[in-house]
């Protein structure tokens, strides 16, 4: 999200979002900015876009959709009532689409974190077995993995260095990533550090647990695949098969 065009667009979206907030407050409506901020953080845009600007971006997108619909409103046939209902429905979808895209991006980030975590735990266990302390091992892991998981671990370690409590760090991580595996791993590390348990043994055990959890998740998705295939099979493939097999006998009878 860099470039002069984005900065100009963003500079227009922020005041537009502020105008919408003031307008809604005048009519007694409040916007849940906390939920919007949560979506932005989970999608990776928390440090780049604030909720007010995101509201302005959504309004701008809706206005662009409205302009396209206004043109279609004039050229498409149909009654005025149908066009009005169609216009309002698509305008609502245009306003909600950016939020749906945020939620989708947040799910993609969570899946990326969960997929990188087993390798990161294995690498951390290997570094500790090689004689590195937890801080040196974590630095090695961060330099190796990078990506979304590296970003989230860097943020959490920075919060710890600034003096934030471990419970609050876990809470922030849970809200920011929605990754139960990552939160459980850090909670496991904090508990092992508090009890003075040797990290080499607990990390090897945790690595097996994370891989078993990932394997069970894949097996669960594999078991759900036949159920998901029922819809296209029953409503798409089966009717086509019936038309091809029975239709050749029914059509001549209908033509008689």
TrEMBL record:
Annotated ranges, domain Type II secretion system protein GspF: 121-245
TM segment ranges: 54-74, 80-97, 227-254
CC per GO annotation: plasma membrane
Lipid bilayer topology: Multi-pass membrane protein
Coiled-coil ranges from the UniProt annotation: none
UniProt-annotated location(s): Cell membrane
Main subcellular localisation: membrane
Superkingdom of this protein's organism: Bacteria
Pfam families linked to this entry: T2SSF
PANTHER family: INTEGRAL MEMBRANE PROTEIN-RELATED, PILUS ASSEMBLE PROTEIN
Name of the molecule in the record: Tight adherence protein C
Native organism: Candidatus Hakubella thermalkaliphila
């Amino acid at each position: 999200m860099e470039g002069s065009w984005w900065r100009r667009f963003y500079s227009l979206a922020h005041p537009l979002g502020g105008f919408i907030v003031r307008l809604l407050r005048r009519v007694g409506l409040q916007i849940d900015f906390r939920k919007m901020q949560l979506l932005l953080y989970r999608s990776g845009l928390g440090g780049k876009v604030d909720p007010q600007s995101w509201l302005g971006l959504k309004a701008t997108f809706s206005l662009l959709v409205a302009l396209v619909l206004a043109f279609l409103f004039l050229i498409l046939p149909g009654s005025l009532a149908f066009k009005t209902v169609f216009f309002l429905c698509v305008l609502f979808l245009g306003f909600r689409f950016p939020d749906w895209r945020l939620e989708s991006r947040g799910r993609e980030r969570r899946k990326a974190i969960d997929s990188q975590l087993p390798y990161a735990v294995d690498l951390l266990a290997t570094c500790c077995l090689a004689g590195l302390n937890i801080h040196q091992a974590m630095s090695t892991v961060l330099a190796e993995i990078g990506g979304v998981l590296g970003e989230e671990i860097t943020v959490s370690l920075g919060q710890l260095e600034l003096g934030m409590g471990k419970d609050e760090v876990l809470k922030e991580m849970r809200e920011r990533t929605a990754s139960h595996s990552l939160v459980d791993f850090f909670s496991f590390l904090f508990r092992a550090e508090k009890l003075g348990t040797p990290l080499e043994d607990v990390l090897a055990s945790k690595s097996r647990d994370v891989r078993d959890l990932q394997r069970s998740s894949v097996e669960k998705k594999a078991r759900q695949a036949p159920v998901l295939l029922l819809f296209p099979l029953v409503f798409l493939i089966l009717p086509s098969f019936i038309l091809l097999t029975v239709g050749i006998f029914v059509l001549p009878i209908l033509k008689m």
